Amino acid sequence: MKHTLIKITCAICAICGFSSCNDWLDILPNNEQVTDDYWKSKEDVEAVIASGYYYMRQAVPTIIKWGELRGGALYTQNSGDAKLQDFNMLPTNSICDWSAIYKIIGMANSVILYAPGVKDNTYYDAIRNSHLAEAYFMRAYCYLLLVKNYKEVPLVLSAYVNDKASFDLAKSTEAEIIAQIKDDVKTALATGAAKGTYEEEWATKGRVTKWALYALMADACLWSEDYDQCIEYCDLILNAKDNFRPAFMSNTNDWYTMFYPGNSNESILELNWDYSQSQTNNFASLFTLSASSPLRPTAEAVAMMKQETQTLVDGGMSAEGRMGRMLLATYVPDGSALNTWPTANQYYIWKYYGTDVQDITGGARPYQDANFILYRVAEVILIKAQALTMKGEGSWAEAVTLINKIRNRAALPDYNASLSELDELTLLEEILNQKEMEFMAEGKRWYDLLWLGRISNSKYKTQFIAKVLLGNQTTNQQWILSVLQDPNAWYMPLPQADIEHNKLLVQNPYYSSTK
């Protein structure tokens, strides 16, 4: 951890040398040393908050790979990244590096420490507390991401802004980290200053709002099997009456607008890029045909694409153009999706590259500035459905209703299973199937499978492993079957550089005993 915390200190020192910004989204660090005297105005705080979003955008490739490569919907032929999808990681593999996430935590910690002490007559409490709400979200979101990937990590709550602090820190337990995540969200919401909207339209979707805090809390509560509180926070979004609340878009034809142009009504929080401000992402290197080792759908995912699309054809929809969420989000390598989807054998992600649902010859994005969605209402709906399912048979009818909202928006017929014939696992599998189709390449799939394997003292461990095996197409199945018998192997190793620099840091058990 010492290795990473030194990086965090350097990042904060660089950012805090920058006390103003012409373009809020484009904070680039100056190479200046920070001092406690830096924090003099609300603009100083705003600059560090902006740097937090800057580092969140920088971390998106990591977020996508961590959330997808073990989940069996996407795969890569990149030898380094394939270590993750094949459960063959070493602590020295770069894919295990968590420094991008701890940089964001470092930015958040510095705001939480220093913003309350800023003496500026124009820095009103409402503005200060709104900044703090954003910082608490960043810290809580990152720790939930770390828990899902490492289970136990150092819980850094101090701002490492100079080299006088001790960098040795032991891991905290998962329960301690989850408790801190929930406390951060509650602290952010307690002042009432977390915004529902911002003056600038993009910021309502591109900066943290109370809706993002509700979604994060629902996510954390689902993970920790606190289903009553999960449902409570989902309902704060789904039952809201605010004029500018995030709202589920039920029209099938509106589905693609979430990705182009983005910042849709359904979005809760997304990271924004804008080519006109010289901001570009590197999604082309992750998803397009021209990439050397792109992330692309597995054979299992393609089969689901074709099955969903065939269902729509059988229901009377024209076979012209793309249909179904999976094919809406993909394109085939010859540049045409028209009438080729049943026979095409290779697909690439389209949702971050296209401008519409038509084929690649007429709808490719001219610039690499697609946004990345962290939370949207469809996920909240399905999170609630998961929690309701786990509440017992009395809640299953409502869970089915929520599932059908998602299916109907995709132009699919209702899920018509008889409640008297349903069981918990069958209903959960339908929800996870819908999530796989709805959120492909949005960094969600692995965590959904891992949640299934963990819940209720791992009673669905066998089914979890079977789903991982079904999607993986790049390594020996017996190897995966053997590895995943040990729940400690469901998580990544801690980075070796941090183990070597932090004498209190202990490697995750599977990797310390077998590697």
Shape, per Cα inertia axes: globular
Unreliable runs: 5-13, 16-35, 335-339
Mean pLDDT figure: 87
Biggest sheet architecture? 2 strands, antiparallel
Distance between the termini: 20 Å
| Approximate strand percentage | under 5%
Radius of gyration: 22 Å
State the secondary-structure class.
Answer: mainly alpha
Widest beta sheet: strand line-up: 1-3
Can you give keywords for this protein?
single chain; 515 residues; mainly alpha; two-stranded antiparallel ribbon; two-stranded antiparallel sheet; 22 helices; 3% strand
List the helices and strands and how they pair.
Layout: H1 2-15, H2 42-58, H3 60-68, E1 74-75, H4 79-85, H5 99-114, H6 125-150, H7 174-190, H8 201-206, H9 210-223, H10 227-238, E2 267-271, H11 283-287, E3 296-297, H12 299-314, H13 324-328, E4 330-331, E5 348-349, H14 360-363, E6 372-376, H15 377-391, H16 396-409, H17 424-438, H18 445-458, H19 461-471, H20 477-483, H21 496-501, H22 509-514
Please tell me about this protein's structure.
By secondary structure, the chain is mainly alpha-helical. The chain has helices at residues 2-15, 42-58, 60-68, 79-85, 99-114, 125-150, 174-190, 201-206, 210-223, 227-238, 283-287, 299-314, 324-328, 360-363, 377-391, 396-409, 424-438, 445-458, 461-471, 477-483, 496-501, 509-514; strands at 74-75, 267-271, 296-297, 330-331, 348-349, 372-376. The strands form 3 sheets. The chain has a two-stranded antiparallel sheet. Strands 2-6 form a two-stranded antiparallel ribbon. It has a two-stranded antiparallel ribbon with strand order 4-5. Helix 17 (424-438) runs antiparallel to helix 18 (445-458). Residues 5-13, 16-35 and 335-339 have low confidence and may be disordered.
